[in-house]
Amino acid sequence: MAPEGTPRESTVGWYGPIVRWGLSVSVSEELTDPRVVADVAAAAEAAGWDGVFVWDHLWNRTLAPFADPFVTLAAVAAATERVRMGTMVTPLPRRRPQLVAQATNSLDLLSGGRMVLALGLGVDSYGEFSRFDEAADDDRARARVLDAAIPVLDQMLRGGPVDAVDGFTTTAAGAQRPRVPIWIAARAGRSAGPRRVRRHSVEGLALVDPERWAPEHVTAALDAGGLAAGTVDVVLVGGVHPDPDALAAAGATWCLREISPGFTAAEAVALAAAGPGG
User: CA-CA distance, 5 to 186, in Å (whole number)?
Assistant: First the structure.
C-alpha cells in the first residue's frame, strides 16, 4: 500500500482474496493529543497494519470531549508513509461539505494519496446535534441532508467546478483520481447504507454492530444494496473477525479493530505494536 506518486488511482481495483487490517481509534481522553495518535499510527505501520482511522465525534457516551479528526489525521500523515488513513465516520449533516472537502483533499496531498473519507448520518444519542439546535436532529432528517450533500461533496472532492455554487471551484484537487474514496456507514442487517452506496456510486460500505463477524453479514449487506462482491470495499468495524479468509471470500475487504474510549496512550500503542495478529 505504499504511495505510488501523485496523482494515484482510487481504491477501485484493490479488492483481492485477503482482507486488510486497520485500527479505528477513538480520539478521546489520552488520545485527544494528535501526537499520541501519531505514535499509535507509527507503531501500527511498523507492525504491519494497513490502515489507521479516527472517530469523528464531539463526545459519545462518556461525555469526554474528542479531538478534531482532521487535525489528528494530519499528525498521522506526517508520522507514516504507507498506511491508509481516514475518518470513521464523519457525520456530514453536522459539517459543511465545502470544509470537509477542503480538509480531506489537503490531507490526501499531505499523505501522498492515502486518505479515505467515511460518511454517515451521525447520531444524537448524546446531544451532538440537539444541544446546538441543529435542525437535523432525527435520523430521517439527517438522511435527507446526507443524501443531498453527497453529490455536492463528490464534485468538490474532484477539484473542479461545482454546479451547486454557480460553477465555482471550491477545493484544490487531492492526490487520488478521480477523487478520494468515499465509504458509507451502515448497520449490519439494515439496508439504508448499502442502498446509499449504490445510489451515489461510491467506493465502499463501513458496517458496524456485530460482536462476531460472519460471511453472512457481508453477503446480506451486499445483497441489500444490489452490490456485487469485489466491486466495493466492505469494511467490518469493531467486534472480532474469527475467519478472515471466509470474510474475504464473501466480499469483505477490511477488518477494523477498535481502540475505544478508555484506552490509555500506552495501551493503544501496545495494541498497535502487537500487529493484526496480536
Answer: 32
Distance CA 56, CA 176 (A): 22
Nearest to 182 by CA among 67, 97, 247, 79: 97
CA atoms within 13 A on the CB side of 87: 29
Name, in order, each residue with C-beta under 8 angstroms of 266's C-beta and a sequence gap of 6 or more: none
Q: Are 116 and 183 in contact (CB under 8 A)?
A: yes
User: How many whole angstroms separate alpha carbon 115 and alpha carbon 120?
Assistant: 17
Judged on CB neighbours under 10 Å (0-12, 13-18, 19+), 82 is: middle
**Superfamily of structural domain 16-274:** Luciferase-like domain (3.20.20.30)
The closest of 164, 144, 142, 143 to 153, measured between CA atoms, is 164
The amino acid present at 173, given as its one-letter code, is A
On the CB side of 236, CA atoms within 13 Å amount to 31
| Digit-coded pLDDT (tens) for 16-56 | 558 999 999 999 999 999 999 999 999 999 999 999 999 99
Cell numbers for 189 = 442487517
Using CA atoms, how far apart are residues 195 and 8, in angstroms rounded to an integer? 28
Least Cα distance to 196 among 142, 246, 245 occurs for 142
What digits encode the pLDDT tens for the residues 83-103? 999 999 999 999 999 999 999
Length of the chain measured in residues: 278
Where along the chain do its domains lie? 16-274
pTM of the model: 0.93
Beta bridge partners of 74: none
Q: What are phi and psi of 13, to 5 degrees?
A: 100, -5
Q: What is the dihedral of CA 244, 277, 60, 115, to 10 degrees?
A: -80
